Amino acid sequence: MEQDRIKDKALYFAGILSMCILLVSVAYFFFLRTIQIDLQKSISLHYTGENGMASLEVEVIGDDLNQRVQEFLDTVLFEVSPNTNLSNGDVITITATYDENLAQRYHYEVKNATMEITVEGLQDRYASLEQIDHDYLSAILNASETYVWDHENDIFSLNHETSKEEQWELTRLQPCYGAFLKSKSTSASDRVIQIYQLDFKQNDQVFTLYYLVCVPEINDGMEIQTQDIFGERAYLSDAEIESGDYASYVNRVFGQQYQIESIDLSALDESE
Questions:
Q1: Which of 61, 86, 125, 181 could form a disulfide linkage to 54, CB 3.0–4.6 angstroms apart?
Q2: Residues of the chain under the 50 pLDDT cut
Q3: What is the β-pairing status of strands 258-263 and 230-233?
């Protein structure tokens, strides 16, 4: 019997010892152990703009992280220097600031709070209309026309007083003039514009207006940022309309900011 009591006591103390070891281990791994957080592996870089005129936004990647790490990363802020007119090959410095008290509390050792990266992957501008790929230019003009059809009701309501009961319909969309606008400044992107004659009809009534659609961010990435396309009414003079001198209107509105090259729409249509 004495041996059984000794055995039971031994098992009891062994159990207590195991529990203590487990508790110490848990305390160490979750509360005392120093954990390295490499900020360079926890960020994503988002460039805005093109080669020679870009800027950088740094964001924290927060996927698949435990709650404490995420709580810490939510305090991290980044400063980029320099961060204007960036070009491919530029070396920039990213400096992070964070809640140091929180890092100490959770025993976080932060790595790469300051890092240098080389800018790469920025798109280049076209030097002239001649450099723009034919298929890309056609896609741009098609996107411009699609924008008009998708917004025909808004275009009409913004430019003509009408009641909800009146049923006006866009019956004619005629491209009149297109141009490549190369910005004279690094602060604005290059763009393609197109002027349309729009005829809206209700019964025997016809309302005609001239409308300009702008497709911005034209570069050798050959992407069309459809969400950035916009339009506005083109207030041409009677003389410009009668003579078809749309180029004069475009030069009057955009000539100070852009270098303008007219697009031969007829040649573009014939080659398709």
A1: 86
A2: 24, 27-28
A3: unpaired
